[in-house]
Each structure stands twice: as structure tokens, then as C-alpha cells.
Amino acid sequence: MNVPLDQLYRLQDRIRFVQSRKRERDTIPAELTEVDREYREKVETVATLKRRGTEAEVERRRANAELSEHQGKLRKYQAQLRGVQNSREYGAVLNEIDAVEKLVRSAENRILELEEVIQTASKELASREEILPLASAEAEIAKLEASMHPRDRAEFQRLLEKKGGLAIVLVAGNSCSACHVKIRPAALQSLKVGREIIYCDSCKRILYYDMQKS
Ligand SMILES: [Zn+2]
């Protein structure tokens, strides 16, 4: 496995958090369904905000395409204006220019409106997602896992399953914090350098020497 240990430790922490939250959510007694309802409402609000933002982005792209089309027409009429022969033709082209200019302005205004919708939706989304620790923990897990080699990811997953959700454990007082067996001095030395993965001799979990805590 070639993954920084603090990353593995964080991944395990987030996985455990999500699991415990889900367990809580799935076993809530009847009097707590109100909390559950509120939670579901928050999830729905976030989904709505996301949808609103995406729709506005699609519409903005369309409005941008329309705008450049109108601008193209405008340039064409302005070129025509220079070649007109009489005042009647001149008046007709001016009318066309006037109409296209209105379209350009309204497309520009629409784009500004849509940009505001997109901005508001993304700002609200950021603040709502903070209230949804579960969703953000899941997103973090996905991100951490995506940065790992599939082989490492599978190996870590297997170890997590085999070791009851604790695949990587802190070193505490020169011992493994899971099984409390003392760590050999040589292994401890390697842990402090922190370049290779060291497993506990006794429980075979990955040992994590936290420089700040140890
Ligand atoms: Zn151990």
C-alpha cells in the first residue's frame, strides 16, 4: 500500500462517522421521527438548490448562444448601412438595427439575471451542506478513495472489514491502541520516520504514529 497514513486514518474516521450516523438514523425511535423529517427536508432543499443551479447554467449557455447570434446580425446590418443607396433603404436597415439591439440588450440582461441565480444557489448550497455532515462526510470519503490506487483501496477495505472497522490505529505510549501490545523498538523507530507501513505484530492492524499526539 502506498498511501499517506494520515489520509488512511482520515478515511477510516469518515467511514466510521458515516456508519454510526446511518445506524443512528435507521434505529431512531418514533419520537425522533420529527428530527428525521427535518433531515429529509434539508436533503430535499439541497437537491432543489443543486437542480436550480444546473438549470440556470444550461439556460445561461443558451442565452449566450442567442446573444452571439444577435451580435452577428447586428454587425451584418451595420455593414449594410454603409452601402445603402437611398433614404428609404437607410430607414429600413436602421429599423432592423434597432430591433436587434433590443434583442442584444434583453439577452445581456437575461444572462446577468441567470448569473445571479447561479451565484445565489451555490452560496445557499454551501451553507446548507454544512448542516448535512453526513453528505459532506460521504463526499470526503469519495474524494479520498478516488485519490487512492484501486488495489490499495480494495486492500484497505478488506482490512477494515476484517478488523471490525479499525484497520489503522494510533500508537499510544509505545503500544498498539487497539490490542495494547508493546511495539518493538525497531518498528517504533520506523513508525517515527513514517515512510513504510508497519503492522501491529499482535492484531495486524496498520500502526499510525501521530507526531502531534504521541
Ligand atoms: Zn495491535
Plain-language structure description:
This protein is mainly alpha-helical and 214 residues long. The chain has a domain of 103 residues. It is 71% helix and 5% strand. It is built from 6 helices and 3 strands. It has a 3-stranded mixed beta sheet. A hairpin with a 2-residue loop joins β1 and β2. α1 packs antiparallel against α4 and α2 packs antiparallel against α3. The model has no long low-confidence stretch (mean pLDDT 89). The chain binds zinc ion. The site of zinc ion (ZN) has 8 residues, from loops.
Explain briefly what this protein structure is.
With 214 residues, the chain is mainly alpha-helical.
The main sheet orders its strands as 2-1-3
Secondary-structure element order, N to C: HHHHHEEHE
- Which segments are poorly predicted (pLDDT under 50) over 5 or more consecutive residues? none
Largest sheet properties: 3 strands, mixed
